[in-house]
Amino acid sequence: MGKEKQDAAGNEEGKKGAKLSLGQRLKRFWSITVNRLLVQFIVLIGLFYVLWSAPFFQHGFIGPLSEFYASISGVILSLIGYPVQVIGDSINNGKGIAVNIRNGCDGIEGLAIFWVGILIFPTKWKDKLLALLFGSLFLVALNVIRIVTLYWFRINVPSLFEMMHVSVWQVLFIALTVATLLFWIGWTNKRNELQWNS
Question: What's the Cα-to-Cα distance from 155 to each of 40, 68, 87, 89, 150, rounded to whole Å?
Answer without folding.
Answer: 43, 21, 18, 18, 9
